[in-house]
C-alpha cells in the first residue's frame, strides 16, 4: 500500500499520482488503517507531493466480492483525500464493485478511471461449454417483492414482483352533487 511507479507513458521527471492499493477483503477494522495509510502518503509523501496531480488513485482490483464495508472504506478514503485538497478515482474496478457503486448512487463520488480488467481465465473457443444443469427446486418459495439474487461476483439485479400500492380515499370527504345529475 505505497506509492507506485509512474504509469506507463509518463514523461521522466513529471509528477505521478499518489496510488493506494486497497486489499481484499476489507473488514470494519481495516477502514481506519486504510485512512491512516492514505494520510501518511499525502502528508509524509515525497517533497514534490505538492506538484502531484490532485487526484489520488485507489487500485481496487482485489475487491472482487465487495460489500457495504468495502463501499464504506472507499467513501471514507474519498473524504480523507478531500481533507488534503485531493480528489479520488478508482482504478481496475471489477463488475461487482461497479454495480455496487451504481446501486448506492456513488457514481459521482467514486469516479472510475478505466474499464474493468479482463477475467483471469481466458475464454477458450475450442472447448465446448458444459450444458447448464437445472437448479434443484428451492423448498422455500420467494416472498412477494423479493429481489432476485445474482451469482457471486456478478452484477446486482433487482426485479419487482409487486404492484404499486393503491391509496384509499380519505374518510370524511363527500362528493358534491350538482342539481340535475342522475341518481345512483
Chain-wise SSE layout:
Elements: E1 19-21, H1 30-43, E2 55-59, H2 68-83, E3 87-91, H3 95-104
Parallel strand pairs: 1-2, 2-3
Helix pairs in contact: 1-2
Can you walk through the features of this model?
- With 184 residues, this protein is α/β, with parallel strands linked by helices.
- It has 3 helices and 3 strands.
- Helix 1 runs parallel beside helix 2.
Major sheet characteristics: 3 strands, parallel
Taken in chain order, the helices and strands follow as EHEHEH
If you average the pLDDT, what whole number results?
74
| Structural shape | elongated
Low-confidence stretches: 1-14
Cα-atom radius of gyration: 26 Å
- How far is the N terminus from the C terminus? 78 Å
Instruction: Please state the structural category.
Output: alpha/beta
Keyword list:
184 residues; alpha/beta; three-stranded parallel sheet; 3 helices
In a few lines, what is going on in this structure?
The protein has 184 residues and is α/β, with parallel strands linked by helices. The protein contains three helices and three strands. Strands 1-2-3 form a three-stranded parallel sheet.
Amino acid at each position: 500500500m505505497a506509492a507506485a511507479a509512474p504509469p506507463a507513458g509518463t514523461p521522466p521527471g513529471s509528477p505521478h499520482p499518489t496510488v493506494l492499493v486497497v486489499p481484499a477483503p476489507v473488514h470494519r477494522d481495516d477502514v481506519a488503517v486504510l485512512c491512516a495509510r492514505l494520510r501518511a502518503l499525502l502528508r509524509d509523501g515525497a517533497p514534490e507531493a505538492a506538484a502531484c496531480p490532485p487526484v489520488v488513485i485507489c487500485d481496487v482490483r482485489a475487491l472482487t466480492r465487495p460489500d457495504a464495508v468495502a463501499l464504506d472504506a472507499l467513501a471514507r478514503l474519498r473524504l480523507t483525500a478531500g481533507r488534503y485538497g485531493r480528489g479520488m478515482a478508482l482504478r481496475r474496478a471489477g463488475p461487482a464493485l461497479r454495480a455496487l457503486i451504481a446501486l448506492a448512487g456513488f457514481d459521482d463520488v467514486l469516479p472510475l478511471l478505466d474499464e474493468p480488467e479482463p477475467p483471469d481465465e481466458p475464454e477458450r473457443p475450442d472447448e465446448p461449454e458444459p450444458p447448464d444443469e437445472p437448479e434443484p427446486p428451492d423448498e422455500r418459495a420467494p416472498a412477494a417483492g423479493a429481489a432476485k439474487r445474482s451469482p457471486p461476483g456478478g452484477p446486482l439485479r433487482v426485479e419487482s414482483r409487486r404492484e404499486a400500492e393503491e391509496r384509499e380515499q380519505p374518510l370524511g370527504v363527500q362528493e358534491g352533487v350538482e342539481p340535475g345529475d342522475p341518481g345512483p
